[in-house]
Amino acid sequence: MSFMETLNSRQKKDICLIGSFVELYCDGKHGGADRHTYHLPTGLGVRSLCPDCSCFMEYAVMKRLKCPLEEEKPTCRRCRIHCYAPPQRQLVREIMAYSGRWFILKGRLDYLWHYLF
Predict the structure, then answer these.
(1) pLDDT band at 13, cuts 50/70/90?
(2) What pTM was estimated for this model as a whole?
(3) What's the number of CA atoms in the CB half-sphere (13 Å) around residue 70?
């Protein structure tokens, strides 16, 4: 069984979503930094990120894959268990606020649904 087969559709969707948000945030906040290709888990794509955002993305993917509430998983914002350490929780709030507003302003209403619910 390959790693990709162990990911369920919700995990794949969440990882792709946080990847999009982090890439947009990195573009806006760290645009002048050296960028490297960050490979999401097999088959989910690549992102162009600075070293700091790559490090955060690695952390976010690891935490998403190890979520103990997989069967009943709410959005992370509404979760009763907070997996992220306080510094990363603050950073993901900043990333979601920055990127979420940008996506909504650009007409990505599917992100509005995720942002509110």
Answers:
(1) confident
(2) 0.81
(3) 13
